[in-house]
Design brief:
Blueprint: H1 8-11, H2 18-29, E1 39-45, E2 48-54, E3 63-68, E4 71-76, E5 98-103, E6 108-116, E7 119-126
Antiparallel strand pairs: 1-2, 2-7, 3-4, 4-5, 6-7
Length: 149
């Protein structure tokens, strides 16, 4: 018995959504419990979004943001070692390296990023070009002469 399932019914009503399949495959590959660091994805308006990443103890120079082929990658980690004279009785603040990736939808642009109070805020904006916006198609009641026989 296999746990695989067919996604063909999902694609019957979609045209040109080749990345849709990739999103499901990526979600299936994600390891459970790999949620470090914690983050929020917020919607502030119809076209404005924000990703907030908990970056406790990290400075701006410890973080790197990159957008390539529609994927936003956030990576970071402590670059300086802690003094060897420190003995932790309890170490609850994680200081390990991380890498988060977010596939951005079409026409989503990263507008700004800022680190404040241990939170990395990344502002996103959806900018839809005029040619990609919905257009109303008028229905003519008169057939064209070329189509009549």
């Amino acid at each position: 018995m296999t746990n695989a399932f067919s996604m063909a019914p999902l694609f019957r009503s979609s045209v040109g959504f080749d990345r849709f399949n990739d999103l499901f495959e990526t979600a299936m590959r994600n390891e459970p419990g790999s949620s470090y660091p914690p983050y929020n994805v917020e919607k502030h308006a119809d076209d404005q979004y924000r990703i907030v990443v908990a970056a406790a103890g990290l400075r701006e120079e410890d973080l790197e943001l990159q957008v390539e082929n529609g994927v936003l990658t956030i990576s970071g980690g402590k670059r300086e070692a802690s003094p060897e004279s420190v003995t932790y009785l309890h170490q609850g603040i994680a200081q390990r390296a991380f890498k988060l990736s977010f596939r951005l939808a079409d026409h989503i642009e990263v507008k700004s990023a800022g680190l404040r109070n241990g939170l990395l805020n990344i502002d996103l904006l959806r900018v839809v070009p005029e040619e990609a916006k919905a257009k109303r198609i008028p229905i003519n009641g008169v057939q064209q002469a070329a189509l009549q026989n």
